[in-house]
Write a structure and sequence with these properties.
Elements (H helix, E strand, L loop, with lengths): L5 E2 L3 E9 L3 E8 L5 E7 L4 H15 L9 E5 L5 E5 L3 E3 H4 L8 H20 L2 E2 L8 E4 L6 E3 L6 E2 L21 H4 L7 H17 L9 H10 L14 H10 L11 H10 L5 H4 L14 E11 L24 H14 L2 E4 L5 E6 L4 H18 L4 E12 L2 E3 L1 H16 L3 E4 L1 H6 L4 E5 L3 E6 L8 E2 L2 E2 L6 H17 L4 E5 L6 H15 L20 H11 L7 H14 L7 H11 L10 H6 L3 H9 L3 H15 L20 E5 L1
Parallel strand pairs: 15-17, 22-23
Antiparallel strand pairs: 1-2, 2-3, 3-4, 4-6, 5-6, 7-9, 8-11, 9-10, 12-14, 12-15, 13-14, 15-16, 17-19, 18-19, 20-21
Helix pairs in contact: 3-5, 3-8, 5-7, 6-12, 10-11, 14-15, 17-18, 18-21
């Protein structure tokens, strides 16, 4: 179609007024009454696009409201077209420039009209699903005359069939509700309420509620980031309006107003007042030095090796991707991993898994915990691309967010463009990880694995550094080890020194020499972890993991199977194997499901009883004693155990280093 054409024998095209992603808008003249109309023509044809275009026409034909653009006619020859009233003015996105705030009276008037129009659609059984500033038109550039546009994504509140497949993101990501961001199919009126909250927030503060350089970052923020209160950004906003916007932006649909009509009533009841005379502004003074608490947080993004659509609006069938990480089986494995690391996971509609961890301890402890979680997720999601970022974020309701999400999203996008699998980490995270972790450094830093031993050679310019200055201590340790073997007694040696004094290097040299001089030796290693300082058997669990060859990042089911095999290997009596395996699993944080022994069920009710049973006749002691007996009978045991010196079971030296 072009200017001068006559459509349906009625509408004369005058000029092209604008173009969008799916169609062209012409200014036209209605030959019946001489009125100017806007005639929208579909230019990007396709089954999905045509269905949505026709859907918009059908919905508009059923909605006659002063704040909804008026429907005139529609047809499909020569191309699908829709005739609507012609509007002069600007859309809200043009009014809302960077940093532009609207007067509070204008925001309330604007909000009442939008909510009234959306509420009318809700009463007629429709959800808009794509509310955003560019779909709000200010007739004659006045906030007092609003027209709601673009019902192309509208659907019935109770629809027998959706126009989209599960896992496809529809709408503009910065104004989606969390349930839309998850790709949920049961979208209702409260989703439009959330979008209206985003619009009001932007009108009042001059900044969008959710922004980001990457679509993944915005989706992640929609799922985990709490929006700041409006009054924290603009002091003259009435408290009632601030509270209403906060309710509208609540992550939980049940906490929001139920529909547009309720929002319209709430806005209509709000009256601005002179805050300087009421003293309301004084209530903004924080009770502490900061209005919010900053905590260290880790963000791990898990995605497939795909490239997201570059546009901020995703809805075309060709740009959509059905993600395998959304399957129930995948989500169950991810949740199991989160239970072990006390994190929170959300799956966005594009399939990206957003993991947030609130970590404590020193910076190195925090990085180690986040790295272990990332490795576990990598094992749980084969073929996935992961990005790990660590930093400080503002914590609200137990969830921290901020620029950490942005950095993780940028890292994931870069990794996905490369098509690489594995765990990509920031250089700052790599610098915090000690020699327990293997990190490959190239164009990106990639986390490969966690070492299970201390025998990591210290390299300088690619060569092993010489061991100097600790010969006396090394001789003492080697002599103790020799005596333990020859005299068949258990020995304990504690090495105490300040940080950086060379304790780990001393232990590395001892182990290297012991393996060379006693090639048949069986050595067990355990390492204390500050993240498990409150765990009574934290070090013993580390010892068991080394003995069984189990990584903490291994799937829980695999850990349980290995424990059952280990209990059999070390010679635990058959009648006690189930009980022993269950106590081992308790200590290693991979408890068995289903039926448990009577002793374990009783021990779970009392931490004191759990400790007593584990130390005395519980699984930990039984397994270690059996293993030690086997080692001693074959004269190959030169490894550490947790048995006391007075034990009747013979084993050899346990070396402990601490600051």
């Amino acid at each position: 179609m072009r200017p001068g054409d006559l459509v349906d024998g009625r509408f004369e095209l005058l000029r092209e007024a604008g173009a969008g992603g799916m169609g062209v808008v012409f200014q036209a003249k209605d030959q019946r009454d001489g009125q100017l109309i806007a005639l929208k023509v579909l230019s990007l044809e396709g089954t999905a696009n045509t269905s949505r275009f026709v859907r918009e026409a059908e919905v508009l034909s059923q909605l006659s409201h002063r704040a909804i653009v008026r429907y005139v006619a529609h047809g499909e020859v020569p191309s699908p077209w829709l005739a609507m009233e012609w509007l002069d003015g600007e859309d809200l996105s043009q009014r809302l420039g960077p940093g532009a705030e609207l007067a509070i009276d204008d925001v309330i008037a604007l909000g009442v009209q939008i909510a009234d129009a959306v509420g009318f659609a809700h009463t007629r059984g429709f959800v808009h699903r794509d509310l955003k500033p560019c779909n709000v038109f200010l007739e004659s550039r006045s906030a007092a005359a609003v027209k709601l546009l673009d019902f192309g994504l509208a659907r019935e509140l109770v629809a027998p069939a959706a126009l989209t497949a599960t896992g496809i993101v529809l709408g503009t990501v910065g104004y989606l509700s969390p349930e839309q961001a998850r790709g949920a199919s049961n979208i209702d009126a409260r989703s439009d309420v959330f979008a209206m909250g985003c619009i009001l927030f932007e009108c009042l503060t001059g900044r969008p509620a959710f922004t980001g350089d990457h679509v993944v970052a915005i989706l992640a923020k929609l799922l985990v980031e709490e929006v700041p209160r409006v009054r924290s950004l603009r002091a003259d906003v009435p408290s009632a309006l601030d509270s209403l916007v906060a309710r509208m932006l609540d992550k939980k649909p049940d906490a929001r107003p139920r529909d547009g009509a309720e929002v319209a009533r709430a806005l209509g009841a709000i009256r601005t007042r002179d805050m300087s005379s009421t003293g309301e502004a004084h209530s903004l003074r924080p009770a502490s030095l900061t209005a919010s608490e900053q905590r260290v947080m880790a963000v791990i993004l898990v995605g497939q090796a795909i490239t997201a659509a570059p546009q901020s609006t995703i809805g075309d069938a060709g740009a959509a991707t059905i993600i395998s990480l959304r399957t129930p089986a995948a989500r169950a494995v991810i949740q199991e991993t989160m239970d072990r690391f006390h994190g929170k996971a959300e799956v966005a509609a594009d399939g990206t898994v957003v993991v947030t961890l609130r970590v404590a301890g020193s910076a190195t402890d925090q990085a180690a915990q986040a790295a272990r979680c990332a490795l576990a997720l990598r094992d749980a999601c084969p073929g996935a691309t992961l990005a790990l970022a660590l930093g400080r974020g503002v914590e609200t309701s137990g969830i921290a967010a901020g620029e950490v999400i942005e950095r993780a999203a940028a890292l994931l996008a870069s990794a996905q463009r490369r098509g690489g699998e594995g765990v990509y980490i920031e250089p700052a995270v790599a610098s915090l990880l000690d020699d327990r972790f293997v990190v490959a450094i190239g164009s990106h830093h990639m986390l490969q694995s966690e070492r299970s031993s201390f025998e990591s050679a210290r390299l300088l310019l690619g060569r092993v550094t010489p061991f100097v200055g600790r010969g006396k201590e090394l001789n003492t340790l080697e002599q103790t080890l020799t005596e333990s073997i020859l005299d068949a007694v258990a020995s304990v040696t504690v090495v105490v020194a300040g940080p950086g004094a060379g304790k780990s290097r001393l232990l590395e040299e001892l182990l290297r020499n012991a393996r060379r001089r006693h090639p048949a030796a069986v050595i067990w290693l355990a390492r204390a972890d500050a993240m498990r300082a409150q765990s009574a058997f934290g070090v013993v669990a580390s010892l068991l993991r080394f003995a069984t060859g189990l990584s903490e990042s291994a799937p829980v089911a695999a850990q349980r199977d290995r424990l059952v095999a280990f209990v059999s290997e070390v010679g635990v009596e058959p009648s006690s194997r189930d009980r022993v395996a269950q106590f081992l699993a308790e200590a290693m944080s991979c408890p068995f499901e289903g039926e448990q022994s009577v002793q374990l069920r009783a021990a779970r009710q009392s931490s004191a009883l759990m400790g007593t049973r584990s130390r005395a006749r519980g699984s930990i002691s039984s397994a270690l004693r059996c293993r030690a007996r086997r080692c001693w009978s074959s004269r190959t045991c030169t490894g550490p155990t947790s048995l006391p010196r007075s034990s009747s079971t013979r084993c050899c030296a346990r070396i402990s280093t601490r600051s």
